[in-house]
Amino acid sequence: MDKVSLTEKFALIHEHWRPRVVAELNGQELKLVKFAGVFPWHQHDQEDELFLVWRGEMTIEFRDRRVTLRAGECCVVPHGVEHRTMADAETEVIVFEPAQTRNTGNVVDPSFTAPNGIKI
Fold first, then answer.
1. Do the beta carbons of residue 100 and residue 46 sit within 8 Å?
2. Which domains occur in the chain, in start order?
3. Which position among 7, 32, 79, 88 has the lowest Cβ density within 10 Å, counted as fewest Cβ atoms?
4. Is the pTM of this model over 0.85?
5. Torsion sign (Cα): 59, 75, 39, 120
6. pLDDT digit string (tens) for 56-100?
7. d(CA 108, CA 91)
């Protein structure tokens, strides 16, 4: 029941595409992650994902369209929808999703698949 400074927690993250858990509630995890570049196409068969931009700008690309998010904007990607995320410059993103959700969904990629449950 202690407060969490998202600014301080983001300052501890020094790599891209490696989510860190900052809070857990009702089977969900609140994760912080820094984006830069292009993430692989993937989908989550059972889990919806909410992306909320804290600082910077990112794009979620779907097969038929793109959604650009800036600080203070969010988008929910429903389960089963193929997508990929990207950011031209380093962007700080808050992700809400069920606990133990693999960041690369149905894809295992040695460069992008991150271990689950890493707390910061």
1. no
2. 6-98 (2.60.120.10)
3. 7
4. yes
5. positive
6. 999 999 999 999 999 999 999 999 999 999 999 999 999 999 999
7. 23
